[in-house]
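tool_call: predict_structure(chain=1)
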Amino acid sequence: MVYVKDEGSEFEAPIGFVWKYIFGGANHDSAHKTTRNPTFKKVSDITIEYGSERFLRGKWAPDRLRITMVEPISVTTEWLDGALAGSKFVYVYSPKGEKTRIDVYGEFTSKTLPPDEVEAAAREFLESEFSADAPTIEAEYQKVKSARH
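tool_result:
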């Protein structure tokens, strides 16, 4: 198991807008090119199971995650099936005016990857998630701001 901490990234939009995007469905899902064929199963008002095929470490493979969203504070994820099954991590969101800070803390593990590749795979996953969301959030927020003026 590898502890991964990634602090200080920012989305160029206020926290309320970021949460609308996270819960936005198709727009959020289409931004993520490293997943395909998503499925959603509601577990509770704040928890879903998300299944997909995910591109990680150079190949597509099925995975399944349990995701709990505590608006506007955090998203907690447990990786149930896939390359990083058994991993648990939390995204923590902090308002910063017109921006939203995002910090990630987690323990990552794998039954299929060599131990020395687990941290690299975790960071690859986190980077792909942020790289998909950040430009989409910024572009959508700029549209909303422009429409107000």
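agent: The chain is about 30% helix and 45% strand. Proceeding to next step.
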